[in-house]
Design brief:
heterodimer; A: 740 residues; mainly alpha; 26 helices; 3% strand; B: 551 residues; Methylamine Dehydrogenase, Chain H; four-stranded antiparallel β-sheet; 10 helices
């Protein structure tokens, strides 16, 4: 009814005239346009009309709405049919559109209306499904290999469990046996382990987990108090304190290191490397070398100010200390070797600021002044330790990532800490547990250490050192005159070297250029001839049997032998020629007479020549620039380029990534069979003749199950380490709840 | 007691060797990088040995596909490495070595003594062939070490299965013979005769006379490329592809008579020695020498490169023996031999044999430790003309004026052979199959270069060129990141400070998001953690009745 009325109203909106639409076909047109003069007459009309309307409405029955809504305001948007203003009125019903509704039609419409449901947009229905499949799709896209059809029964022998579970005892004998087995708790379906065995295994894992957990807890606690300690120390602003502290630390480290050399040489080696690194850095840097701003200012004052002088001196001393080489039993051996080899060489300091090296540096009295502060340092360390003990209980937050590293650290400090462990009796329960577990731990960790460190010891650099051993520089003639025995006085050698240097300094000025390169070609050729003893003296009978050809050849050889003198200079000439050819050429484009006077005997000015001289390219350093006796071709080998990859394939950003991925050979010649199979496996494998069905929902489920299974597995794996106690806690909580 | 104590049957096959290992040697071989220690070495070093590439440094942001690809390749390489290390167990054999009594020099032990001490089959490998008529002899062993080819200066050519002493063929070419060389298998060999290069089969039938190759003095065969490289008196270095019979390259070296030649087995580069004391390195792809090194003051008499391509040993007229690191072209060691070495040969395990006149000396470890005396020495009759270690055997073949001598040199040969590469025990059928496979896997001569891994590198020059072309075509560099240039604004709003401010607004925009995201993540996780904690604490904080008495 409402609808009908609204339609009526809409019609009025369009035509501008009120139009009464009747089901029965009665239509009344009334003209509302009335002039102002006839207002009274109008009122009369209105009354009459109302009457008429009332009469009609009473005639038509009560179901029709009498409310007529007139449009009272201007509306911007008018619907297509000029029916309704926006937001005004209500929905159009189907029945409204049908002018004459017989009862039958009415009924039909009603049934239609009853059965109506709105349909969703097509994709939105599928969306969750697609989303759930996305994981699987990605998984399949990323899989190294896909096997089709998807749900294939794995061929080959089945595991025994599967076979056994499918089988059932039928005959009385079998049943009897099974009864026996059952009675004795022997495994029936899972024949691998008896329950007792499984239990024992579980027990084992528990124990391990306990140990593991204890270690982790320990490390966490340690970490926390180290952190706290560091934080506290960082806050201290006193420079003096830090100075002293650093000194003490260094001292302590050295001491520890000395101990370690005896007890644990591998770790000591590592430590030594670190020390060496620190020393290197110190030597590289300009720190403590009186070259800073402060030092410069002090240097100005040094003339007058005693303190400034002292301060500078101190800094230098510090530098000396820091650049002091740590001498231990570890590198003693090598050094001894070196000394043996070098023999006469003086012991020179590595650095200008270094003091002359003392011979017996292992002696602590010779190592510096640090020994004076030892007491103080010890005090500090004691203090620190106490603080650590106090703070131990306070913080227990964990950081899982660093656990492994911490464990290692823990190992290193274990011995130092042992004493403190004894004092820790008044700590929390967990701490106590740790102490209890200590003994077990020590065994456990010692095993770990044994495992870890053995291989390290055996990683020896394969490559042979390319360092020359004993090199004695001699001229060619010297070498020839030498006797077979090589034991000579060192003094002689030294003089020889001096002589040689004199002789090599003399020759042509051409070589002055070469001299810069450190390696003198002549020296390279003539140096170090190690004479080899030969037990059998060779006989020169060959000459007897020689042919004419051989003689010619021999003559050639002799000639060749005497040609040796200018071999070096020839080579140098050639090398220089090559270098010159490779250099960028300078093109002179000056034209005489342009812009200035020209003519006989006149040369273009320097300025002009400079202007018009063009350099063709940057100077490229030759590959052989540091090898005086080698000429390397600078030509690019183009023949291989067609076989090389010249553009980066899609996902790669740079050359090194790509080159590294294709670096490993794939073929059977270089790999084991298994590797070849893995590396060359096909992306998609289909079974011949099998129908490949589209992926069904069960696949999806399976993959989800797998994923969840894996997740849970990995979780359990990670949890197992710290698992049991937590689980117990939880259980206890649960019980608590129950009770409450 | 003068008899030398010899460890295991030198040239015996691996299985027997192991059985006879004496105890004493363990103390002896500390100084050497012997394989014996290997067995007791942990996996780490072994795995290190099979390392083919360094692990990639992980960059920050990568395409997810790239990440996956790199991870996969890394996995594969790791697996290959581990597997190879695992299978290294299957190579149980060590090369042996000679050990004297206390105070006894190994170089004074005579070949007869050694032959008496070892088992019969090994002692049978010491023999002399007295061929005084057509000498002096050059020789070559086939790749598997089973066959020997002898070429006498006066035209006598013989090839034989030297272990069974079975003669395969014997001919006289009635011309002077400069050099002989087996080709890829024992069914064919090349002979450099007075004028041309000839190819014969194992029955002595002349297959080819190659007129393009004249006056050849020395030859080398590159087995994986099927290339026969020849050095001629006319100073030409020529390459013949024996699989198709084509000349691949002919290079005029412009340095006179070429009678010193060897190959680098690692990268198939040919080394030539010259009378002006230089050694030059050649590939068929370049008309000039790749490298020219001045090695000796006199002429170079002989050159040899070890199996790994690391060391080069040269001897010259200045009576010196020099060891170079050929990867860096740097001299390592220099020795003075009272009589310079005329021929050099390096064995598979790195023993160096040098012929000085009629004495053959064998040195051990010439590159790592300074050597003062030879490991072994042996005098042959007549001047030595050719010298060659037999692959996979502890045998040194010496061709001299009076024929041929097969010497026993313990520790020379590689004890573990690769059955797919060179199988000494292969049958005729296996040889045929190997031949087909080898031909299929033939490496093209274009790929010969100093660095054999060059093929795996991206051709940067072409890449750059292509990139340049692209830039030219597009008018801009597509890979370049565009710089932000602030627009000029009027009314003094483009003052330097304002411009800088505007630049700052867009600076590091790409990073900002990442940072923002990471910070957000962090905050979220922290929040979650807090919530969790608060919940946990709420649970644990349930007060008991006695809590009120707590301080």
């Amino acid at each position: 009814q409402v609808g009908r009325s609204s339609i009526r109203k809409d019609f009025t909106a369009v035509s501008g005239a009120v139009r009464y639409d009747d089901d029965d076909g009665e239509e009344e047109d009334l003209n509302p346009e009335i002039s102002a003069d006839e207002e009274e007459a109008n009122e009369e009309d209105e009354r009459k009309r109302n009457k008429l309307v009332q009469a009609i409405s009473s005639m038509g029955g009560g179901h029709r709405s009498t409310r007529l809504e007139e449009r009272s305001e201007a509306v911007i948007q008018v619907s297509e049919f000029g029916v309704n203003a926006v937001g005004e009125g209500s929905k159009i019903e189907l029945s409204d559109l049908i002018p004459t509704a017989t009862k039958k039609a009415q009924k039909q419409i009603e049934t239609l209306q009853r059965g109506r449901k709105t349909l969703d947009t097509p994709l939105s229905r599928l969306l969750p499904d697609i989303n759930s499949q996305q994981n699987l799709t990605i998984q399949n896209q990323r899989a190294e290999q896909l096997l089709f059809p998807l749900n294939q029964e794995p061929s080959g022998p089945k595991p025994m469990e599967h076979v056994v579970t499918a089988w059932k005892a039928r005959t009385p004998l079998e049943q009897e046996i099974f009864a026996l087995l059952n009675a004795n708790k022997q495994p029936i379906h899972n024949p691998v382990l008896t329950p007792a065995e499984e239990e024992s295994i579980k027990a084992m894992s528990l124990e391990e987990a306990k140990i593991r957990r204890a270690e982790l807890q320990k490390s966490r606690a340690l970490q926390s108090y180290y952190e706290a300690k560091a934080r506290r120390e960082r806050k201290i602003k006193s420079k003096k304190y830090h100075k002293v502290h650093n000194k003490a630390k260094r001292k302590e480290m050295l001491k520890q290191f000395d101990e370690m050399v005896k007890t644990n040489p591998e770790a000591a080696l590592e430590e030594l490397k670190k020390l060496e690194m620190a020393r290197m850095q110190e030597r590289m840097s300009l720190k403590h070398q009186n070259s800073g701003k402060w030092a410069k200012s002090k240097a100005i004052m040094a003339k007058y100010d005693e303190d400034a002088r002292k301060a500078m001196q101190q800094q230098l001393e510090l530098n000396k200390d820091l650049t002091q080489k740590v001498v231990t039993a570890l590198n003693n051996d090598e050094e001894e070797d070196n000394e043996e080899e070098e023999g006469t060489e003086e012991v020179l300091p590595d650095f200008v600021n270094d003091a002359e090296k003392a011979e017996n540096v292992a002696n602590p009295w010779m190592r510096g002044k640090l020994t004076e502060e030892e007491q103080e340092e010890e005090k500090i360390s004691m203090m620190v330790d106490e603080a650590v003990v106090i703070e131990e209980s306070s913080e227990e937050e964990e950081e899982v990532n660093g656990e492994e590293a911490l464990l290692r650290e823990f190992e290193n400090r274990r011995q130092r800490r042992k004493e403190e462990e004894n004092q820790m009796a008044d700590q929390d329960e967990e701490e106590e547990e740790d102490v209890v577990a200590e003994d077990e731990l020590s065994e456990f960790t010692s095993i770990i250490r044994g495992l870890k460190e053995k291989p390290e010891e055996l990683i020896v650099d394969n490559s042979m050192p390319l360092v020359e051993g004993l090199t004695r520089i001699q001229t060619f003639e010297d070498a020839e005159n030498l006797d077979l025995e090589m034991s000579e006085n060192i003094k002689d050698d030294v003089t020889e070297i001096v002589q040689l240097e004199e002789t090599t300094k003399e020759p042509s000025p051409k070589k002055a250029k070469k001299r810069k390169r450190n390696i003198e070609l002549k020296e390279v050729l003539t140096k170090e001839a190690k004479v080899v003893n030969v037990p059998l003296k060779f006989t020169t009978e060959e000459a007897e049997e020689e042919d004419l050809e051989d003689e010619i050849h021999q003559r050639g050889l002799i000639k060749e032998a005497f040609a040796g003198d200018d071999v070096v200079s020839d080579f140098l000439k050639e090398k220089r020629k090559q270098e010159a050819a490779g250099k960028p050429k300078v093109i002179d484009l000056t034209l005489p007479g342009w812009g200035e006077w020209g003519g006989l005997g006149l040369k273009p000015s320097k300025n002009k020549r400079r202007k018009f001289r063009i350099k063709t390219g940057p100077v490229v350093q030759r590959k052989d620039s540091k090898l005086p006796e080698v000429i390397m071709s600078e030509q690019r080998d183009k023949s291989i380029t067609p076989h090389q990859v010249s553009s980066l394939p899609f996902p790669f950003d740079n050359h090194t990534q790509f080159e590294s991925t294709i670096r490993c050979p794939l073929g059977r010649t270089w790999n084991s069979e298994k590797t070849v199979k893995k590396v060359t496996q096909a992306k998609v494998v289909t079974q011949l003749g099998a129908i490949i069905e589209p992926m069904g929902r069960e696949e999806l489920k399976k993959s989800q199950q797998n994923a969840s299974h894996q997740k849970s597995q990995s979780q359990t794996a990670t949890n197992q380490k710290k698992a049991q106690p937590e689980r117990r806690k939880k259980q206890a909580q649960k019980r608590k709840k129950h009770r409450e | 007691d003068n008899e030398p104590e010899k460890n295991d049957g030198e040239s015996e096959r691996p299985l027997q060797r192991k059985a006879q290992k004496p105890k004493k040697r363990k103390q002896e071989d500390t100084g050497r990088d012997s394989r014996q220690g290997k067995k007791f070495v942990s996996g780490v070093r072994l795995i290190q040995k099979f390392k083919r590439k360094e692990e990639m440094s992980k960059s920050r942001h990568k395409h997810h596909k790239l990440k996956r690809l790199i991870a996969q390749s890394e996995d594969a390489s790791k697996m290959a490495q581990n597997q190879a290390a695992r299978f290294d167990l299957l190579l149980p054999e060590d090369e042996g070595f000679l050990e004297g009594d206390e105070g006894e020099d190994t170089c004074t032990i005579s070949q007869e003594d050694i032959a008496n001490a070892v088992d019969i089959s090994a002692s049978a490998k010491y023999f002399n062939l007295k061929l005084s008529q057509f000498g002096p002899y050059r020789l070559d062993y086939s790749k598997t070490g089973q066959h020997l080819l002898l070429g006498g200066r006066r035209g006598h050519i013989a090839c034989l299965d030297w272990q069974s002493k079975q003669l395969m063929c014997e001919i006289n070419v009635l011309e002077s013979v400069n050099d002989v060389k087996w080709l890829h298998s024992e069914s064919m060999y090349a002979v450099a005769q007075k004028k041309w290069l000839y190819i014969y089969d194992s029955n002595g039938i002349e297959l080819h006379c190659i007129r393009k190759f004249n006056d050849v003095l020395r030859m080398q065969f590159l087995p994986y490329h099927f290339l026969l490289a020849t050095a001629s008196a006319t100073s030409f270095l020529q390459y013949l592809d024996v699989s198709v019979g084509k000349e691949v390259a002919a290079i005029c070296t412009k340095s006179g008579r070429l009678d010193v030649m060897c190959q680098n087995p690692y990268n198939a580069i040919i080394h030539l020695g010259h009378p002006n004391g230089t050694v030059t390195l050649w590939s068929p792809n370049q008309k000039e020498a790749l490298v020219k090194m001045l090695c000796h003051q006199g002429g170079v008499r002989s050159v040899s490169v070890d199996k790994t391509g690391t060391y080069m040993v040269t001897s010259g007229m200045d009576k010196k023996l020099k060891v170079y690191d050929i990867r860096a072209f740097k001299p390592l060691k220099s020795y003075f031999l009272p009589t310079g070495a005329s021929c050099l040969s390096l064995s598979q395990r790195g023993l160096l044999s040098a012929a000085t006149g009629d004495v053959v000396q064998v040195y051990r470890d010439v590159w790592s430790t300074p050597v003062t005396k030879p490991y072994m020495a042996h005098r042959v009759r007549g001047a030595v003309w050719g010298i060659h270690f037999c692959p996979f055997e502890d045998v040194l073949g010496v061709g001299h004026g009076d024929g041929f001598t097969s010497m026993l040199v313990p520790g020379a040969g590689e004890p573990n052979f690769d059955g797919l590469d060179a199988n000494p025990y292969r049958s005729a059928k296996q040889r045929q199959e190997w031949e087909v496979k080898a031909l299929l896997e033939k490496i093209q001569p274009q790929l010969i270069s100093l660095d054999p891994n060059k093929l795996g590198e991206v051709d940067r020059a072409t890449f750059e060129q292509k990139h340049q072309d692209r830039i030219e075509a597009l008018g801009f560099d597509p890979l370049e990141k565009q710089k932000f240039v602030p627009r000029f604004k009027k009314k003094g709003r483009s003052s330097a400070g304002a411009v800088e401010r505007r630049k700052k607004q867009v600076a590091h925009e790409d990073q900002r998001e990442v940072i923002k995201k990471s910070i957000e993540d962090k905050m979220r996780t922290e929040k979650e953690q807090k919530q969790k904690n608060s919940k946990a604490s709420a649970v644990s904080k349930q007060k008991s009745a006695l809590d009120r008495f707590r301080k």
